[in-house]
Structures are given as C-alpha cells and as structure tokens.
Amino acid sequence: MAGVLRQYQGDSLYLAAFAVCLVLLYWKERKQGGSTGKKALAAAALSVVFVFNEIAYQIVGKITNAATYYRFFWMLPVLFLIAYELTEAFFDGRRHRRVLGVIAFLVCLGFGANLFFLNRANLNLPKNMYGLDPNVISIADAMMDDWYGTGGEESQKEQPRAAFDIYLEYQVRTYEPRILWAISRNAYLYQAQHGYDFKKYVHQQHMIAAVNEGLKENQQALRRSLDKNGVDYLVIRTEFAMDSYLSEISITPVTQSEDYTLYRVKTAKNRNRERKDLGG
C-alpha cells in the first residue's frame, strides 16, 4: 500500500486533502450525532480495500495500463469526498462560512497554477495554466505555426506527427493535443526496461535513440523509421548537436527553444507542400 501511495501521489496535495476531509467528516459525525464516525471510517476502509493497495493495482492493471492511468482510478473517490466534505464545511447554513467558501474559491480561481486568470481588461485563461516547462510551449507553438505556414489550407485537414523525448511527450499532450505522437508509450516503456533492442519495436527504437540520447549511429535506419511512422517533426535537445548529422537525411532545423531544437522532416508530403508554397 505504501508503494502505491508513493508512486501516484506525485507532487500533488490530493491525498493530503483526502486525509484532512476524512478527519473533518469523523469529527463532524462525533460532534453532531455522538456516533462513532461510521461514514468516515467506512470511507477510509473502502478506499484502502478497493483503491490503495497492491491487489487493486494489479487487478486494474489487467484491464488498463496501470502504469499510466491508475491515478485516474484512485482520484474518483478522493475528489468526490473532498468536494462533498468541503461543500458541507463551507455551506452548512452559517453565513460566515459561506463567505469564507466564496473567498477560497475566488483565490483558487484567481491564481490557477502560476498565473492570474483575471486582469484589468477581461477574464482570460493563463497561457501556462498547468505550469508546463516553457520549452513545451515554445516548441509546440512553433511547430503548429510552421505546419500551417508551410501547408496552407491543405494542412488544416491533417495533423502533424512528431517525435519527442519522453520528458516532453507527456507535457505536449496537455498543451497541444493536435500534435500526434510518433513514438508509442509501449515502445518507451520497453526501452526503459530492456534497453535498445532493435528487433522489438524496430520502427521506433531508432527514433527513441535519437530524441532521448542524441545517438548518431545509423542515419539510414533512422530515416527509414521516420518514413515508416510518417514523422513530420523531430524535437531533440540542442546540446546533442544533431544539425549536421540530420541534414544529411533531409531533416532541417526550424527553430530553437531554451533547451530544444525543432526539426522538420522533409518527407515527400512536406516537399510537395513547400513547392506549392513557393508556387512551384
């Protein structure tokens, strides 16, 4: 159980808030009805039996990808109890508590993750409301600008496919869902556990080696992997100095963020786009 909690709490305060709400529920039951806090104890027992233990983790893992999605499973009871108990605590009929609840809500609304939702002119959503790495925003925006800029109206019917390292990939899906992944999660997980076995996920392992570590071993194999997966863009750490290596297989830099370089893969499809854009 301790391992499951450590793995899925991450840097959030959900579980801490869940524990606080269990205590509040128990205290309220004892104070109001003189009972033994059956609701709180039942909620705690059910969460331990059906959510926060290795057996539940293994069972759910048989149905879905537990390594990625188990957090959504345990968040269901956690979030519902937090919402129930905090609503009860702030809106129990006493005016001063309702005022405190409204103030707390406005504070949460106003401060989002790291920027204000409100300014003097209007109500707006912060650009980086999830506190993403600035590289993610710079690269994703540049990619979409380049995609629509080189493709014109024709590209609006399609979506760009890109290969990122594992660090960027999970953040890009939060910021720009129109960008399709060229490397599957299973290929990443396999590589993390077994290393570079080019017989398994053969058409993705060369891309992983390039974007994760900047390996410069087999240009033609990388090129075949990109063509096989229909990759339009590569995103690689600038420190790997891949420009000359990639240029030999028709992959050219578009722009740089603080730590990454965005490359355009000149596929036949992209070359046709460029010719149309130039009027050729």
Detailed description of the structure:
This protein has helices spanning 2-9, 14-33, 38-50, 54-63, 66-90, 95-111, 134-155, 166-175, 185-194, 202-213, 219-228, 243-247, 268-278, and strands at 161-163, 180-181, 233-237, 251-256, 260-265. It has 280 residues and is of the alpha/beta class. The protein has a five-stranded mixed beta sheet with strand order 2-1-3-5-4, sandwiched between helices. Helix 2 (14-33) packs parallel to helix 5 (66-90) and helix 7 crosses helix 8. The protein is elongated. The relative contact order is 0.08. Residues 113-117 and 151-155 have low confidence and may be disordered.
If helices are DSSP runs of H or I spanning 4 or more residues, what is the number of helices?
A: 13
Provide the gyration radius in Å. 25 Å
Oligomer: single chain
Report the uncertain regions. Answer: 113-117, 151-155
How would you state the average pLDDT, rounded?
77
Q: Which strand order spans the largest sheet, edge to edge or round the barrel? A: 2-1-3-5-4
User: How many strands, which pairing sense, and closed or not: the largest β-sheet?
Assistant: 5 strands, mixed
- As a percent range, the share of helical residues equals 55-70%
> What series of H and E elements makes up the topology?
HHHHHHHEHEHHHEHEEH
How large a portion of the residues is in β-strands, by DSSP E?
Answer: 5-15%
Computed structural class:
alpha/beta
